Amino acid sequence: MMVLFRRTLLGLMMAAIALPAQARDAAGLQRDVLFGWYDLVLELVRHTPTYSPPVAARAFAYVGVISHEAQAALDPAAQTLAGQLNGLTALPVADPGLEYDGAVVLDAALGAAMQEFFGNTGPTGQRAMAAMRDMMAARVDEGLTPEVIARSRAFGLAIAAHVGDWAQSDGGAVVQNMGFPYDYTFGEDPKDWRPTSAISMQQAPLLPDWGKVRPFAMPLATSCPVAPHPAFSEAPDSEFYANAMAVYNASKALTPEQEEIARFWSDDPMLSPTPPGHWVSIVVQIARRDGLSARKTTEALVVLGVAVADGFIGCWHEKYVYNLVRPVTYIKRNIDPAWETLLITPPFPEYPSGHSVQSGAAEVALTAVFGDDFAFEDATHEDDGLAARSFSSFTEAAEEAAISRMYGGIHYPFANANGLEQGRCIGAYAAGLRLMK
Questions:
Q1: Phi, psi torsion values for 127, nearest 5 degrees
Q2: Are residues 20 and 129 in the same domain?
Q3: Where are the alpha helices (DSSP H) in 265-293?
Q4: Do 113 and 22 share a structural domain?
Q5: Are 199 and 339 in the same domain?
Q6: Whether 124 and 246 share a structural domain
Q7: Nearest-CA neighbor of 163 among 29, 302, 293, 279?
Q8: 41 Rama class: left (phi>0) / alpha (psi -120 to 50) / beta
Q9: Looking at the domain assignment, is residue 175 inside a domain?
Q10: Which H or E run contains 31?
Q11: Residue 64 located in a structural domain
């Protein structure tokens, strides 16, 4: 938990203290608010126990929506997402005859969002959120009248409350037992998923009902079904066996770079910002590098958040339709009983690859915002000892994230390839959101 203070909170506070006194820069303050809260959320997700990748993606989507609506409410050129996202009704409206401050509105909304979606974090996280609220309030309230401050904060809180109420009805607000069902009936066919961990809680699969959570932009969890995988077979001359052999052979001949790629994209819960948080981190890095406004940064964050959240809903629906055995189980049973994976196999069915689905969705969403052939460097894991990697496009990054799961021994090649295609279909719904009039 001390990592949270080292990386984010103390660094932000020291940066704030070092800022010289200057005339109020409304646009700059909004940008500082957005980056400050997102820096913190990328740390909170590491330290909130229930935040597996699907749950984290849901939170990132709602935080993105709150960020967008808090700014859109005061921007005549912006378009609300009410009526575009499933079940989101009209949000509170600012009184046109009164003065509001955009930075204060955004700060109040995001502060409330952190408590709404990360309220179950531990004591250190709670202290971090409280300290951030105090620090940001001191920054954004300076120079404003008490009336403008109170009105702006009340308006930001109203926006966050409206979105929070909407979130409570989606079927994903309550996660019991870390997401593992107390009772679970296993399939009896050789193709069916079996536990891959000795941990007692993981004798049941993670979040088997997540495919029932209400999507954000895609109409239904089934709107982008994954293509069927090759017919299950244990025959050495079958296509399925060949895919398992591809995983096995790759593991035996990994280059140093392939091992680095596997670890770079692993993004394990509690040890990283999670796979969806990795993509959020990429957006934040791009925004800082390119000096993007809060408005442009939020455009990317909300479209990305919706894409990856829907990606996990669609993917998890398919996982429990196919309920497919993991490579580690299949290979030990049919090829090499002594084989071990490079990475730890997560506790849920194999098909399709969640990393691949959400990466395909992120690829389409971010390409819609930034364009094709948009080059960037990803230093998400530098603090964890992993060197930054460079990409010429979001497609290149998504494809590397997908194949990383074969290098790690986690997924068959068809799970990665078909997962990317499912994610690209899902991401198109998010990319089609109208954010400006």
A1: -65, -35
A2: yes
A3: 274-290
A4: yes
A5: yes
A6: no
A7: 302
A8: alpha
A9: no
A10: helix 26-44
A11: yes
How far CA 22 is from CA of 19, 28, 101, 139, in Å, comes to 9, 11, 17, 11
User: Is 216 in the same domain as 157?
Assistant: no
The alpha carbon of 119 is separated from its chain's Cα centroid by a whole number of angstroms, namely 18
Q: Hey, what are 363's tokens?
A: 């690829």
98 DSSP 8-state letter? S
In the listed set 106, 135, 168, which residue is the last one of a domain according to the structure?
A: 168
Q: Domain range spanning residue 160? A: 2-168
State the number of CA atoms in the 13 A half-sphere of 274 facing the CB.
31
How many domains is the chain built from? Answer: 2
Rounded to the nearest 10 degrees, what angle do helices 394-407 and 354-370 cross at?
Answer: 170
How far, in Å, are 241, 273, 327, 357, 365 from residue 189 at the CA level?
Answer: 16, 35, 15, 26, 38
Q: Looking at the structure, tell me whether residues 160 and 193 fall in a common domain.
A: no
What's phi and psi for 376, nearest 5 deg? -160, 160
Choosing from 140, 168, 196, the residue where a domain stops is: 168
- What CA–CA distance (Å, rounded) separates 157 from 166? 14
Q: How far apart (Å, rounded) are the C-alpha atoms in residues 75 and 39? A: 25
Distance from the Cα of residue 112 to its chain's centroid: 19
Domain identity same for 17 and 127:
yes
Q: Identify whether residues 138 and 253 lie together within a single domain.
A: no
The contacts of residue 387 (CB under 8 Å, 6+ apart) are 260
Unique residue bearing structure tokens 């229930």: 50
pLDDT tens-digit readout, 192-235: 999 999 888 899 999 999 999 999 999 999 999 999 999 999 99
Does residue 180 lie within any of the structural domains? no
**Domain at 358, CATH number:** 1.10.606.20
Confirm whether 179 is domain-assigned: no
| Per-position pLDDT tens, the chain of length 437 | 344 444 544 454 444 433 444 456 888 999 999 999 999 999 999 988 889 999 999 999 999 999 999 999 999 999 999 999 999 999 999 999 999 999 999 999 999 999 999 999 988 889 999 999 999 999 999 999 999 999 999 999 999 999 999 999 999 999 999 999 999 999 999 999 999 998 888 999 999 999 999 999 999 999 999 999 999 999 999 999 999 999 999 999 999 999 999 999 999 998 899 999 999 999 999 999 999 999 999 999 999 999 999 999 999 999 999 999 999 999 999 999 999 999 999 999 999 999 999 999 999 999 999 999 999 999 999 999 999 999 999 999 999 999 999 999 999 999 999 999 999 999 999 999 999 99
Sign of CA dihedral 402, 406, 408, 410: positive
